[in-house]
From TrEMBL:
Protein name from the UniProt record: Alpha/beta hydrolase
Origin: domain of life: Bacteria
Length: 61
């Protein structure tokens, strides 16, 4: 899962992540200084999310 470190919704992401079952192969990546909307709109945050997804899926698929 990916979330902005300053997202108002971060607590929900953390709760869902902690309650996810059926695998130990999970990761919560918090984008430093990003709010929820910024993770979709600011190129530097989109880049971080894209790189993390590429790394995670490359290692796990």
């Amino acid at each position: 899962m990916i979330a902005g470190e300053k997202a108002n919704s971060l607590y929900m992401t953390e709760e869902v992540f902690n309650n996810a079952t059926g695998t130990q192969n999970k990761e919560l990546f918090k984008i430093p200084n990003a709010t929820h909307i910024e993770t979709y709109r600011k190129p530097q945050y989109v880049k971080q999310a894209s790189e993390k997804l590429t790394q995670f899926f490359g290692s796990n698929l």
